[in-house]
Amino acid sequence: MSGTPPPMPQHVASIYKELLDGLRSMKQQQWTITNYAVLLLAAVFAVAKAGLNVPHLSSRLNLLIALTAVIGTGLLIRIQYNMARSRARLDKMDATYFSYQELESTGLTRVGKYETRPAAAASDTISGDGSSRSFCSVFCGAAGSSFTGLCNTFYRGK
């Protein structure tokens, strides 16, 4: 992308804000679902450990464990899918309405298929080959941190 990006119209800024608020809400829902699932599983294991003498208790507890795992995982996957769609829309808006310098100054370097990154020193990138550090740096910490290697393993397959 060359030149200055166009100014963001008010209606686009409203959509941008809604997408950010939606991401925040979805992340909060993820934690809520996770916390309730863990609480429910802890209660099931507490009941199982108490050793109550109720017929078919273990099969019912096993069913409850399976249902908790399946429903909780399904809800988390659905929320994660929606978050990925929102992040993709935000990436496109970032590439359209923000310059590389504006993104970098806020710590949101979103460089990839939408914009080319200016030449940088090898120490400024994760892999050292001049490739962008958009996803791993933003979501897994600054280059060189212990999370970056893990992020590269899962995100880039390195």
Task: Provide a compact summary of the structure.
The chain is mostly helical and 158 residues long. The protein contains 5 helices and no strands.
Descriptive report:
- This protein is mostly helical and about 160 residues long.
- The protein folds into 2 domains: about 5-95; about 100-158, no CATH class.
- It has helices spanning about 10-50, 55-95, 100-105, 135-140, 145-155.
- The radius of gyration is 22 Å and the shape is rod-shaped.
Task: Give the tags.
single chain; 158 residues; mainly alpha; 2 domains; 5 helices; 66% helix
How would a textbook summarize the main sheet? Answer: none
Tell me roughly what share of residues is in helical segments. 55-70%
Q: What does the radius of gyration come to?
A: 22 Å
Mean pLDDT: 75
Low-confidence stretches: 113-158
Number of distinct beta strands: 0
Strand content: under 5%
Draw up the topology in text.
Blueprint: H1 10-50, H2 57-97, H3 100-105, H4 134-140, H5 146-155
Helix pairs in contact: 1-2, 4-5
